[in-house]
Amino acid sequence: MTSWYKHWNHWPCLPADNVFEPIPPEVMASIAGNAPLSIKRAALTWYGLLAIRGDVGFEYATRKHVLIKEVSLESSIDNPGKVSTKIVCELEVTPDMCDEGGILSPWSLYSLIDEGSAISLLLMRMVEAGEGGEHLSIGVSQTMNIFFHHLAPGPGSKITLISRSISTRGDVGCCKCEIWDTGKHRLIVTGTQMQMMPSEGREPQKESSSRQDLQKARL
């Protein structure tokens, strides 16, 4: 199991550019699954990038405990002819992740679902893009549907996150994440979301000659 937080143990003082420094081979070897090393490295890197703001960032207290156990490529459940990416993570629930009722807070669950599923979709885009795919960026959430199956556990419990890409078509993609109570092998919550690729920046448009003439006339 590999924690992005333990690898960059001086986070968040680390400049963003340093996130892309080579990751030690023993760290990569500890992540199970049949995905290429470049895809496993991208999963580790993006969990780190999403924590760039450190403890002032949203749900950092939850994210820093995430352990990446597996990154795999597998046949899509709905379309065996298509490949899907799967990320399996694990973390132990701590008191600072819990709400006033003493259970894992909805905000922690939402952030885990959002980030895990989004990274799995990004990895799928990288696989499809092939060479040069490492330059792709994470998408922008458009819709998210959450379905609760059971109450979340409290401190000391372990949960497992299973995130999968579902489909990609053009700039649109779909992905999902399941969160399980590891000890009781009980499904807690399922989340699916649609994402769009971020739009590219536009060059400032030059003012038309008629508008320039009007401004000169006013002067």
TrEMBL record:
Q: Where is the composition biased (Basic and acidic residues)?
A: 200-219
Q: Where is this region: Disordered?
A: 195-219
What does UniProt list as this organism's lineage? Eukaryota, Fungi, Dikarya, Basidiomycota, Agaricomycotina
Q: What is the protein name stated in its UniProt record?
A: Thioesterase domain-containing protein
Native source organism of the sequence: Gymnopilus junonius
Q: Which domain of life is it from?
A: Eukaryota
